[in-house]
Each structure stands twice: as C-alpha cells, then as structure tokens.
Amino acid sequence: MIFMRRGMMKSNRLRILTMVFVLCAASCGPGDSAHSRGAKMIRAEDMKFPLQFLAAPEFRGRNTPSTELDIASKYIALMAERIGLKPLMPGGSYYQEVPVEVTTIVPQASRMRLTAGAGERIFHFPADAIIGRNFEAGKVSGEAVFLGYGLGAPQLNWDDTNGLELKGKVAVILDAALPDDHVLKPADNRRLLMSRAGALRGKGAIAVVTIINQEREARLAEKGLTFSLPERLRFPDVVTGSEAMPSQTAAGAAPAAPAPPFFQVEVRHDAGAAILGVAKEDLVKMIETIRQGKRVAPHKMPGRRLEIELGVVTRQDTTLNVVAYAEGTDPVLRNEYLTISSHHDHLGMREGRIYPGADDNASGVVGMFEIAEALMVERPKRSVIFVWNTAEERGLVGSYYFVQHCPVPVDKISANLNLDMISRNDTNQLYLIGSNKISSELDASIQTMNTNSVGLTLDYKYEDPAHPDRFFFRSDQYPYIRYGIPGVWFFCGTTEDYHTEGDIEAKADYAKMEKVSKLVYLVAMDIGNKPALLSLDLKPEIKVRGEQNMKVGWR
User: Could you tell me the domains of the chain?
Assistant: First the structure.
C-alpha cells in the first residue's frame, strides 16, 4: 500500500491528524438520521468537519504526488468503508494505483549564463530563476531580444513582435497585471494573454525569459524565499490527447528527429535588470508602465546572449484513485453502473504559500460522502461506483486512468456525475457542463429532479466547448465523454480565490453543498432505476460506449 510504502510522515502534525481522522471515521456515524430515507441523509452540518480536515494547512495543498495526498486518499477510503461502500479493486482494495514518472531539476547541473561583450554572469536555479513545468534536460543558447509585454496582437492595437526577427532568439518579456478596464482584459482575451510564450515559440524563439511582476518579487523578498522547484509529471499508462490516434508515418520513412528543447524561464528582478542591462529602478518603471496599460518599446539587444542549461533526474512513483461501490438491488441491473466522481488533489505549495483547495475540490469529495450515505440507505437497481480521482490538476489524469483501466466494462456504465467546486457563489445557482452532449436523457433527468425537489437555477453558460474559458474540457466528466459515456459536471463557478491561497474552508457555503449533493443523489437514483442505460442520441458519431470514441472531435 502506497500510504505505508512511503514510510515516515513529513511531520508530527500529520501523524496526529492521521489519528484524528481514524477516530472520527470510527466514531462519527450517521446517528439519528440513519433511519431517514434518501435525500434526508444529506445535511449541511455533516459536511463541515471533513471539509475543514481536507483543507487543513497540514495537508500542504494535497499535491500530486505527495505524502499528504496519500493521507487524503487513506482518509477517503476509511470514510467509504465506514459508510458501507465496498472496495472495487482487485484484492479487496479501495485503491487504484496510477503510475507516475516524476522529473525534477538538479540545481547543481542547471544554470543560465548571460554574456555581454567581455562580461559574464551566472544565474542559478532556484535562487535567481525557475523553469516552467513542461521542461526537459538540455541546453539552448541565443541572442536576447527584449519584447516588452511579449504580446503580438495587432488586431487589438498591441504588437510587441512587429519587425523583430525571433528565430533562434531568446525572448525576454515582462510580467504585469493590466488595468481591469483595459481592452485586453475581457475573458475573450484571457487565452491570448496566457499563451504569450507559446506564441513567441511559434515565431521561432528558442526560449522565453519572463521577469516576474512586482507583487511576486516583493513577496519573495519579504519572506526570504527562493522560487519553488517544479516537478514534471509523466503518466506512462494514460492517453489523454492526440496520441490516441494511430501514427500516420509513411512506410519506410525515417522517424522525425526530436524537437530541440524550448525553455520557459522566470527570473527575479536582480537577474532581470542584469539581462536587460538596466538599473532595478528602471526595470520597475517598465513594469509599472504596463500596469498602467501602456506598451514598453521592444528592441534588439545586440551582443547580449543567454545560455540556458538544465540537468534533471527522474524517479518512479505512484498516486491513488480511491474506488468504491454500492451494489445495485436488481440481480440483473446490478451488473450495470453509473459513476459519481470528484478529484481530491489540488496544487500543493508554491513559493511558501499553501493552496488549501477547499472549494477545489474538497467540496466535491465531501459531497460524495453525503451522497454515498444516502445511497446506502436507499440504493437503486444499478450499482453506483464512487471514484475519488487523483491528479485532476495535472490534466484529468485520474479519470483518464480510470476509464482506460476500468475495473468494470465501460460499455456497462450508463453515465458519470462529476462534482467539482460546489461550495461557492450564489446559493441557488448551479452550472451544468456536458449534460446535453451525448444523451438527452441525462439532461432531462437533471431537469426533472431539480424541478421536483431541489429548485436550483440551472445555468448552461459554460456548456459550449467554444467558450473562451473552455470549462467543458477541464474536469473529470470529460474523459467519460471522450469514451462516449454521457457525463455532466456539477459546477458552481470560479471566484477570485480560484487556484489561490484564499480557497479556504471558512468561505464554503454549506447550504449550497447540501442542495447540489441532493440533486446529484436524486439524479443517481433516477438513472440507476431506469429500465435501460441512457440512450446515445445526441452525437451521431457515438453509437456505443468505448475507447473508439476517443477519435470523436469535441473542439
């Protein structure tokens, strides 16, 4: 068992917390409400302790992979066992092990060297600089070119790349928050701003060096911190994208040469000023200019070269899905299934800050506890599988792994109901994503159960795959949809605390969690009792559930 294999805990506090949740799992039973039926079992007051626990700072943000995430997995399995759910994995286990290769930077073998005329300066990882998550070992070297904010958007009257040759160059850009009322700030332009480095790579740059913003520099300086070393994860047994398609290499053709490395580096202000050849005060003025919504003029930097070299080391590790089920009551239909899912990982720690992940997604984890208790009191004819996924934040890895290494036949799964971020925003509003993409019966079930019992305002704002925020692709219902299984994400929307240290338990709306969980429970009962699996009537290309649907386009 991975929880034991990793050996010693990181702190005495974690040992204490482990004992606390074991005691609570043993003692905090359903109490008087055990004799109630169904939805009456789902109560806001029962959700507070487990949400407080999973979002506690001792869990250090439940990063993938980590000892803290393993402890969260152990807690979830204990809760599933206490509730009465059966283990579904071989050997009577609640754990589905997901292999992962973890690659980290070797600081002693990594550096960035600036040469300017006869002078030279070395910058070190992670004291002066840090690499983005998608890194690899290697070395690049090229002349530096300064591109201001680094945005090429002439259609929006902002073009930092016009007239500058980038092929073989190292682009140096500034990070800064534009004013809220700036023409570039609307949601439609978010991807444009976030993909600046990729766009520069497309124009021929071999690396992008970003000088961090003032707020981040001040925080690091105030706390005496260095950058956090990133980890690159590879999941060898998971297929997520175009690699699902067979190769079209012509017979007899030589395989394509591997692409050279492309590095995205962030640097602190000392290093940034040195690279640009300016005083730190002048660098700050440049960043402030962009904060005011104005461009900083790009320019060539003849004679100034940057060489970036990375050494890495890779280890084998494992992370865990937690899988349990409530057996159906019908002797025939119990061999068909629906899945209820949420992810229990989050972002971990970055530069000394803990990202608690209370809404994202301890809320969904806890909602599933309540749904499971209700289903154990009043079970449907079909079996219900509960999957607490790992590594959602790393690309929906846990859910992809589950459908691709499913312990039951995927063509027997009627639908997936996914809970992710269910504790914030308007108490009476709920977003549905994916419910009307494969089966009209799925959305009809949700509408009927909601109208008859819960009364939430259902919003389809993010349903369209073309929406600029692309939420359709961003949670664990999507791998099911790609397998031709009807799936829906129950979602309460983002807040200013999304993916920040502000996503804490104290901001959770437990009344909303109760309403969403009751709706999911009622939909599960409805789908679980239907005479047949949900129809596949909305996407003509999908005729049966299965891996072959990975080729179907959704973009």
Answer: 2-24+39-103+315-551 (3.40.630.10), 107-239+260-310 (3.50.30.30)
